[in-house]
Amino acid sequence: MIISLKRDVRREDREHLLSWLETQGVSAQIVEGQYQTVIGLVGDTAHINMDLISGMDIVESVMRISEPYKKANRKFHPDDSVIRIREGVAFGGGEFEIIAGPCSVESDAQMETIAQAVKASGAGVLRGGAFKPRTSPYDFQGLHEEGMRILKEVRRRTGMPIITEIMNIIHLPLFEEVDIIQVGARNMQNFDLLKELGRIDKPILLKRGLANSLKELLMSAEYIMAGGNERVILCERGVRTFETATRNTLDLSAVAVLHDLTHLPVVVDPSHATGVARYVKPMALAAAAAGADGLMVEVHNDPPRALCDGPQSLTPEQFDDVARAVRKVRAALVPDAEG
Ligand code: PEP
Ligand code: MN
Question: From ligand 2's centre to the CA of 309, what distance in Å?
Fold first, then answer.
């Protein structure tokens, strides 16, 4: 971090700043120019409050030269992280999986039908929300405990690992048999929730917030990792823009940028990104071609009657077609890629 001081700063004010910086556990190196003094901070500056410094009367500007995310940073962990869910199911470092299933768990029969279908089409992980973050309080909110029971039973019957969203940490005991815990876009910056998830030993799929930068996504991942849980999978699911033809705007460059900045795997969700079933396939193929480490696709046995997100849900037949095409793209990218 570099702090530039204003001109003609009084010596005692400067000394005061330097002694405060010392209490922050960083060492300050002073460069005195003819007109301006610059202070270079060396050490772990991640916890230093930049805004506090830039608000000081004697400070002209503050600049960070290293990123405040350490554990998620590729600089300190050059190799891709491979997040293993179970034998044969992993994300990152060349490992690729498709997560598929309905937006919400609706009934035993619905989950069973969809699970068998997506499994047969090659999906590695089954999704389904039991706690749904809906914009309207009058919309279907999920089956809660009953939904969790259904998910666990389908997991046992099909042998598929499951992913489902947590909205409140008080529900954590219900997530014991869940293989991946999802943090939805609306909770990406629920820092108390992230801190609690940092204390457990389970993979977390962290979705990008509706209007959050990639740096903010990485800082949220850092919250989880700083607590000791380093098994974080990032998910790009589109961001809000002025465009109305799609539900969100899929930021595919996120895949390339995140692979540059972090060692964590990156999954793309073309369903929430587009909101339209017929746009899911082209975006799934584009995501695979861009090097995503996985996909999350909503599939429903009867989309027009789905209790949530029917318009963006693929039928099992459409999903089968997408999964086949994605495998072809993967094979073209990495000639010996599987799955
Ligand atoms: C979901 O995956 O069911 C979901 C609610 O997605 P998002 O948080 O990306 O809106
Ligand atoms: Mn959904």
Answer: 5
* Number of neighbouring beta carbons within 10 Å of residue 208: 26
The rounded average pLDDT for each run of 10 residues, N- to C-terminus, in the chain (339 residues) is 91 92 88 86 85 93 88 95 97 98 98 98 98 96 98 98 98 98 98 98 98 98 97 98 98 98 98 98 98 98 98 98 98 73
| Cα 156 off chain centre by | 27
Give this prediction's pTM. Answer: 0.90
Domain at 2-63, CATH homologous superfamily: Phospho-2-dehydro-3-deoxyheptonate aldolase; domain 1 (3.30.70.1140)
**Residue list, ligand 1 pocket, CB within 6 Å:** 103, 129, 133, 165, 184-186, 207, 237, 272
CATH number of 83-333: 3.20.20.70
The ranges assigned to domains in the chain are 2-63, 83-333
Return the ligand number nearest the Cα of 133: 1
User: What is the spatial distance between Cα 122 and Cα 291, in angstroms, rounded to a whole number?
Assistant: 19
Q: Taken in order 256, 258, 264, 269, is the CA torsion positive or negative?
A: negative
Q: Indicate which atom in ligand 1 lies nearest the CA of residue 237.
A: 9
